[in-house]
Design brief:
- It is built from 9 helices and 10 strands.
- Helix 3 crosses helix 6 (about 130-135) and helix 4 packs across helix 5 (about 120-125).
- With about 280 residues, it is α+β, with helices and mostly antiparallel strands.
- Mean pLDDT is about 85; it is low at about 1-10.
- The protein has a domain at about 15-205: Thiolase/Chalcone synthase (Peroxisomal Thiolase, Chain A, domain 1), CATH 3.40.47.10.
- The protein has helices spanning about 30-35, 55-60, 65-80, 100-110, 120-125, 130-135, 150-165, 230-240, 245-255, and strands at about 5-10, 10-20, 90-95, 145, 170-175, 195-200, 210-215, 220, 260-265, 270-275.
- Strands 1, 2, 3, 4, 5, 6, 7, 8, 9 and 10 form a 10-stranded mixed sheet that branches.
């Protein structure tokens, strides 16, 4: 059975064709799915970032945590989707970009030698992850880059769903955050790096994992955001903005049909309807 895309003032819907996941104690979507559906225990651990081997050697040497995590989850999601990567428009979203690089630049400016290396400056722009994605994948389609503090996942999902429905095209969503070193950590307590990616398509396929939708009449709610029953996963959800995706990923992993309230802009949450395929 085929489903037509719905793009109206009252409804946005898409099908999840692939997921990428990397974070503390989570090294991929298959492993993370087992933690989320309770078929395997979740064990908190530092995020291990792989080398971005899809980049040419020169760019690979310049890649920081933001690039490593966003490319890893983007590649996992697009590979699972089976869709042509070069043709996928993308949405990249984070709370504030590369916090580690920001820390290094601020440290340099506060020192006696205030010269900033070209690599540090090059990676300081907010669309760095999107640019490296284009280099690694050869993607030439449009890319939107958002910065929404704690609302990064919900805002990115809203943007990607809108593009998918209105433009009748599959879209790659990549949401990522990096840790804040001291002394920035004292003001912004993000303890580690995490990334989540989804490929959203306007029509169902044999690879579809779930259907997600927003009802235009009630997609914003003042109800409390959904939490995780597992205490360690809930601590992760609270500590890293990208981890606000966990309740939605849990519903997909458990093949549930329900509404999921995702943390958005206080006091509002994003109410997402999810159903398995």
């Amino acid at each position: 059975m085929t489903h037509s895309p719905t793009a109206s003032r009252n409804h946005l819907a898409a099908f999840v064709e692939g997921i990428g996941l990397l974070g503390p104690g989570l090294d991929s979507w298959p492993q993370g799915r087992q933690c989320l559906d309770a078929s395997a225990p979740y064990e908190a651990a530092r995020c291990v970032l792989p080398l971005p081997m899809a980049l040419p050697p020169a760019e690979r040497r310049r890649a920081g945590a933001v690039v490593k995590v966003s490319l890893a989850v983007g590649q996992e999601a697009t590979l699972a989707s089976g869709l042509p990567v070069k043709e996928l428009p993308s949405v990249f979203s984070s709370s504030s970009g590369d916090a580690v690089n920001c820390h290094e630049i601020c440290s340099q400016l506060a020192s006696g030698d205030r010269l900033i290396s070209p690599t540090r400056f090059h990676n300081s722009v907010h669309n760095a992850a999107s640019g490296y994605w284009s280099i690694s994948s050869g993607a030439m389609a449009s890319s939107s880059v958002l910065c929404v503090r704690d609302a990064g996942f919900a805002a990115g999902l809203l943007e990607a769903l809108t593009q998918c429905a209105v433009d009748d095209t599959a879209v790659l969503l990549v949401v990522y955050d990096t840790e804040y070193p001291q002394p920035l950590y004292g003001k912004r307590q993000v303890p580690d790096t995490m990334g989540v990616a989804m490929v959203l398509a306007p029509r169902r396929s044999e690879r579809s994992l779930a259907r997600i939708a927003l009802d235009g009449a009630s997609y914003l709610t003042t109800a409390a955001a959904d939490t995780m029953q597992d205490a360690a996963l809930e601590a992760l959800r609270r500590s890293i903005p990208a981890a606000r995706a966990l309740p939605l990923l849990e519903a997909i992993a458990r093949r549930q049909s329900r509404s999921v309230a995702l943390g958005y802009l206080d006091p509002l949450q994003l109410a997402v309807e999810v159903a398995p395929c």
